[in-house]
Design brief:
By secondary structure, this protein is of the alpha+beta class. Helices cover 33% and strands 25% of the residues. It has one domain (3-110): Beta Polymerase, domain 2. It has helices at residues 3-16, 45-63, 93-99; strands at residues 20-26, 36-42, 69-71, 78-82, 86-92, 109-110.
């Protein structure tokens, strides 16, 4: 199990709960916080919490791993799940636009996460 494996399983779990605007950024060499980060959105706070629960459950089932920390589940506006080298950010869509977290690393490569997804590999 690698940090990228966790990110990919998290994308699948998020997709199961109809997350939108999912992107995975490769932050290796750009950030000391993590190697990969997934940023996705839900249309309301209830959905963001469901996405977070789905990601936690899937990673526990597939890899037998639990997050180091989970923050923001109470409000559901911005939930962060820390798996060590992989960070998951689940935003209420309007909040995501305000913080524009993925724009903090403009040189980060986007990791392809499947056919039809928004993320595309940079050449």
């Amino acid at each position: 199990m690698t940090p990228l494996d966790i990110a990919r399983e998290a994308v699948l779990a998020a997709a199961d709960k109809k997350a939108v605007r999912c992107i995975v950024q490769d932050l290796r060499g750009l950030s000391d916080l993590c190697d990969y980060q997934l940023v996705c959105s839900g249309e309301n706070e209830r959905q963001t919490r469901a996405i977070a629960d789905s990601i936690e459950e899937r990673c526990r089932r597939v890899f037998n791993v639990r997050p180091v920390a989970v923050e923001g589940k109470q409000s559901g506006n911005w939930i962060m799940i820390d798996f060590g080298s992989t960070l998951i950010h689940i935003f209420y869509d309007a909040v995501r636009n305000y913080y524009a977290l993925e724009s903090l690393w403009p040189k980060a490569k986007l990791v392809p996460i499947g056919a039809g997804d928004e993320a595309k590999a940079e050449a």
